[in-house]
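From the pipeline queue, job 12 of 40. The input is one protein chain; the requested action is below.

Action: predict structure.
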Amino acid sequence: MQSKTSNTPVYRYYYSRPRPKKRGNATRKSSRAYGAVHSSEIEYVMGNLPTNRVYDWQPGDYKVSHIFQDFVSNFVKTGDPNGPDGLGLPTWKPLNEHDQYYVMHIDVNTRLQTSQQRKQLLYLDQLYSKNDQ
């Protein structure tokens, strides 16, 4: 709906990096989340992993944090998450309703993919459009 009501591009992401195990609880089954929990990307985006001493952050966590910070910083500065050449970021294409629904999959292997939820998104657009009438 944003892409239909605005002249600005819409960028979607899918965040899938689970937090690492908690410090001192490496042998407990419940110490590692199964998948990325709601809002867990915030500490990665804000770059404050070192201040959260609860989790045993790994090099991959810092990599994800730097990538995410670069994307957000570029977006805040320019309205586009893609930065100048040389930053090493994958190119992030905006969602395009007439072509492909792109989504940036953010994890250690950050990559642009075609969304697998295009049909569901179109259904929600139709559903919300009916409610506006």
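Job complete. Strands lie at 13-15, 102-106, 111-114.
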